[in-house]
Design brief:
The chain has about 180 residues and is α+β, with helices and mostly antiparallel strands. The protein is built from four helices and eight strands, in the order E-H-H-E-E-E-H-E-H-E-E-E.
């Protein structure tokens, strides 16, 4: 079995986080035109997470505290196509939930692309409103209570050398030479 590792991206691997998001949200889905980076990314309280499946960079998520009452938000969950049938997405969501819970969070909210609603429900999330447009696509607001959520042993620091698969049609300068 290939191991999946998740960790908070540091200065040496934050580029993996942004490259994966760019490949998924800009190049593949066309949700954003030039970049999916926004002001939230430069906020020091934002946590950028990377996941690896073996030695391959496989996915990302970002999370942050919304207020001092324990509300957290998870967003920009991105898993590369080759890893979508694996456990990478589930491990990223579990890692985000456990990270927010460990930081004292009480609830985490997310806007989930409609086709991923059942996936989140299987991970313990609940629908928390009506489907609404978010970045031009229908999203389901969802939430999860955080107390009692803890890290599991397979959610740890990833490999020191990662490889990002580059699709043949990639034109992004973020992915050239990766």
């Amino acid at each position: 079995m290939i191991d999946v590792a998740c960790w908070n991206a540091g200065k040496n691997d934050i580029s993996w986080h942004f490259a994966i998001r760019h490949q998924v949200f800009v190049e593949e889905q066309g949700v954003m035109v030039f970049t999916d980076v926004d002001d939230r990314d430069s906020d020091p309280v934002t946590i950028h997470v990377v996941a690896a499946h073996g030695q391959r960079a496989a996915g990302t998520v970002r999370l942050y505290a919304v207020d001092e009452n324990g509300l957290w938000k998870g967003d920009r969950l991105a898993v590369l196509p080759a890893h979508r049938s694996s456990i990478v997405g589930a491990q990223l969501v579990r890692y985000a939930v456990a990270t927010a819970a460990t930081a004292g969070g009480t609830v985490m909210d997310a806007h989930v692309q409609v086709q991923n609603t059942r996936f989140f429900e299987r991970l313990g999330w609940s629908r928390s409103g009506d489907v609404t447009p978010y970045h031009g696509l229908p999203h389901q607001p969802m939430s999860i209570d955080l107390p009692g959520k803890t890290m599991t042993s397979n959610l740890r620091r990833g490999p020191t050398e990662l490889h990002l698969p580059v699709p043949d049609s990639a034109t992004s300068p973020l992915l050239v030479g990766a």
